[in-house]
């Protein structure tokens, strides 16, 4: 097996299990709310705590990697995932749940940083990055689907947590085998000026802001949509959970399609098309309570939503290639959106407009995604 495959296989598997972990919190949120007697603000706070940890990973990971190396850092921080999932399964007191969600986010963010860095540094094409995120979508699909299977089969909701704990533990073991070049860290320190060249590039910030608004929507889709579909009262619990799973099947197809088209079309044009149709289907989703239209809108949203994040990373790829700090900062900008938005949705949902009005608030995010996609497309045409 080549060095590239020895790097890619553990990373792709880890992203699969990371996809399951990212969705499992939203999948079990409705059960956690009932069992721990949480209100929407506290539940939204847990989602935001998870996103805060994801952001902190962008600072914690490079710092620790500079001390002990990237491989040891990845093993250490990815091990937080199974540990903190077990704490959540125990339904610990709220302060401990918040801490567990923060540490869980650090684990998830660290996995994301190393996987995106490895694929960007050793390949860097939109196809490879879309394939990586398609594998993430496979795991994301399985989390709500298996939750529904376990609950329908009479099993406790904790069984999906235990499943993800096992898979995440295997990914930690996989990281022990990857042949990461630790000399890159030393090289980055010597070439500090070159390493930080992206800071003076406005296109880097446009990419980061687009991902900021994107991840805000994604975290709300992952964390709030099952609860939202149940609250509007037009579908059963199983239908709502399975609809989210179907969405992630469509996301897999969308990422494969985006990866294929990236060989034929400009990645900026693909981003513009994806964001445009995301706006269209999101408006369809929030404008009706008709079950058929909502189902179509969710599937359409998933398909065009799919390629935005990996294509955004690919758009910034050349600016941050070989830079741990660059990838960390890009993902940190995205993570900020994931922190702020779910908490705002939770606060609005506890107010007069309820969860339906809170979901409509996400229209701002999708509009801003389109705005920055247009800027990126126009600037790319001028180059």
UniProtKB/TrEMBL annotation:
Its main location: membrane. Gene3D superfamilies: MFS general substrate transporter like domains. One of its GO terms (molecular function) is transmembrane transporter activity. One of its GO terms (cellular component) is plasma membrane. It is a multi-pass membrane protein. Residues 7-383 form the Major facilitator superfamily (MFS) profile domain. Keywords: Membrane, Transmembrane, Transmembrane helix, Transport. PANTHER family: BYPASS OF STOP CODON PROTEIN 6. Belongs to the major facilitator superfamily. This is MFS transporter. It comes from Candidatus Galacturonatibacter soehngenii. The lineage of its organism: Bacteria, Bacillati, Bacillota, Clostridia, Lachnospirales.
